[in-house]
Amino acid sequence: MLFNSSVFVMGFLPAFLVGFALAGWRFGARAALGFLLLASLFFYAWWKPVFLPLLVGSIVGNYAIVQIMRTARRRKAWLVSGLAANLGLLGWFKYAGLFAATGAAVLGVRLPDLGIILPLGISFFTFQQVMFLVDSYRGEAPSCGFLDYACFVGFFAHLIAGPIVRPREIIPQFARHDGRVRQADLVAGIEIFLLGLAKKLVLADSLAKFADPGFRAAGAGHQLSLVEAWVALLAYGAQIYFDFSGYSDMAIGLARMVGIGFPLNFRSPYQARDISDFWRRWNITLSVFLRDYLYIPLGGNRRGEARRNANLMITMLLGGLWHGAAWSFMLWGGLHGVYLVVHHQWRRTGWRLSGAVVQAITLFAVLIAWVPFRAGTMRACWIMLRGLAGLGGVLLPAMIVRAMPVLRLVARPVAVLPWLGAARTMSVVQGSALLVLAWGIILLAPDIHSLRVRGRNAALVAGFAFTVQALFFAPFARPFIYFQF
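Structure tokens predicted for Probable alginate O-acetylase AlgI:
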């Protein structure tokens, strides 16, 4: 069930809010949280009920391990067992196919069909429970009852694609919740949710019409011209920005409706001053998780420059592989690892560039790294990079060349570029205007979370979001990009 689907917005969400409020009003806070948990399990089972026992078993098993670990003498053994179980489960479902295919290719044998289906949200609820295990071992996790813990892991607002919330940030909120739905929280949550919905439906899904054809053509082995490759990449860079920003807003808004505060997960990352600043702004909770539970335990920057660089590379490579079971994701993570190493080495020289230059270099590097992230295969990645470098030639729509004849010196006019033909509903002018609008918002406007939420704007936002939805959207809900991870 997608946050941007009509069945969620018009069906599940109103029913959940009414049921939560009635349970709290009639039977108290524990009943309200019990209803929240049952609604979350229903939400998870909507996709494939067969995986519901996996989620429930994971929650029950991890809670039991923590309770044993709190009083056991061999606490570290229980921690290692819990981590092995969680990561082993994640590894089987997410990476068994990749490693089997790689091994079969190396050995030159035919790969049997393993028949593995990736359970929805397993990467996210696994990381939630890894945090709880480690924090409990360190004595940093709050003691809690099973209901509070189950809500911490299973709350539908972050179950599928984050944010990855720390136990000490969220569990106390469930523990002290009084079961009431307050008007101020409800209105503010609805406003944030609808703003995120507008980002997803109006901008991200429209931009996908220009990103998908180019990357699809590269995946099919077709060479792309300079313009086609850059249009596809700029469209995808803006698409994933608004897709993930919209999802983050919607998750925060859903939690806010019932009085739960989620941490900020997205803060204008394309306005970052350098690559380290980018990772302090993009998927903030994942960045914090990788830093606190991988980079620092590996030694961080405490053991010299060479070890720090190695730790950065390991962290980013594993962070890339976490996003998907493909070597292209590891390449994406490796590129960001190289970026971070180069950035730290540059800072050691003492040389400085102007802020605008550094910001432009950072944005360019981030965009180039999106190529393997989106391309899917190394072959498609190479075709896209060739196109971006102009090695596939230069093509421009004939109407643009007619308006600026000097372009004939560098470009060959064509009637309609393939990516425009695939968009269908938009002309050259409309498509160009959409890209300019999107990137203008990205580079100049503050993110919604730097604005003060005013409840009186909710009706205006609601009217805007649903009017645009009714007029322009495709007859199906496009999944969020991060749902696949």
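The chain has three domains: 6-106+114-181, 183-260+394-485, 267-373.
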